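Workshop exercise sheet. Pairs work together: one partner reads the sequence aloud, the other fills in the structure field after running the prediction. Swap roles for the next sheet.
Pair: D.N. / O.F.
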Amino acid sequence: MKSEYIIEVNHVSKQFEDGKFALDDVSLQVRKGEFVTILGPSGCGKTTLLRCIAGFQVATSGDILLNGEDVTEMPPNERPVNTVFQKYALFPHLNVYENVAFGLKLKKIEPHEIEKRVKKALKMVSMSDYEYRDVDSLSGGQQQRVAIARAIINEPEVLLLDEPLSALDRKMRSDMQLELREMHDKLGITFIYVTHDQEEALTLSDRIVVMREGKIQQVGAPTDIYNEPQNCFVADFIGESNIFDATMVKDKLVHFCDHDFECVDKGFGEDTEVDVVVRPEDWYITEVGNRDEKEGPWQLFGEIKTCIFKGVHYHMTLLTDDGYELEVQDYHAFEPGTRVALLVKPEDIQVMKKSRLCNTFRGKMAEDNQVEFLDELWDVNERTADRFAVGEEVDIEVDFNHINLQDDEEDGTLSGEVYFILYKGDHYHLQVRTDDGDDIYVDTNDIWDKGDRVGIKIAPSWIRLYKVEG
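Structure field:
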């Protein structure tokens, strides 16, 4: 039975010699003719996934199917795919025509057929008048078109593009994005496109695959990814966001920023900790004067702190009366110092399950009222320690706001590096990666930068111990 998918990636992992996973149990299906973009920050595994599909790297585990055929071990030249690389990989000693014709000559195609197909490919990329130009004399955008023509001339079923526009300036990138989309529609073949540029992904794609640390975070249409992110990373990475800790009071009622808001979400339970996203453009904003501010539908009140013109709209930050910092976009400017009221509609509030409620570790009781976890010994309260025998395995919890970070890493029981930062309206939520590769999550009002080296301390009274179940 023929598969409905042209590409199937089934539970693929790629582990390198240092033990780190570039891909961790990745599964993805792509239909024929789709334009799918793999999106994520540097080091997330997107290029590794593309190279595994192309055959330039072999997966450690899992399998890859093209048209239902297992190609996991198949060499690149035997796969019905072509790749356009970030640096184009054009031959500088060949002119445009010779670069595009190169693959066909290797296949011993008749010269008249080569000429016919080269002219067709160059016309497709709007380079018909450049056949005999040296590639070094071309602009970056023109070189990109030649690289694409060379890839499509072999009539691949799948075209793989690895950040092909990253070397171009902003204006040329925008122009090439539109041309790539038009080219895809004309060719009717499957495009798999890798980028770290969110705007590019939203512009080009039928579907977007958002990756982080070797795992797929969400797959969906651009509108779904933007309007209904499944977790805080996706919400923060795709566009600008206001992200808050919240409590789902009950179905269709959520509490955040010290206010109850009606929403459309159900099924989270009652009094459940959740995360909430409100996009800056979804706030309704008005200036308030001397009248009673509490009249009308307005939900939050505050003062404008900054106002920046962005060409089409104004981007503003404001501080609410309850101490929450929000980002708001509007077509009208509200100058700093202006007192304003805000409203958000129920359908514009996106409620998400929390990835975790606290830090959790597995450890073992040691002597002298200590517990061992994260390869270190930590003091615990004597009364807590008395409940467990030395050597007994225990489950450990520590709240995000009970991790103390030190400027001098030597002052901590453990040291690490600030790896990810998320602002949540009135505090920062940090992911700190220890030197041994473990992750600790921290809520703090202190300002840290990504890459900062820190010491990590946890007071004995904040370490909760539980018996290992089962």
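Discussion prompt: The chain has nine helices and 30 strands. What would you look at next?
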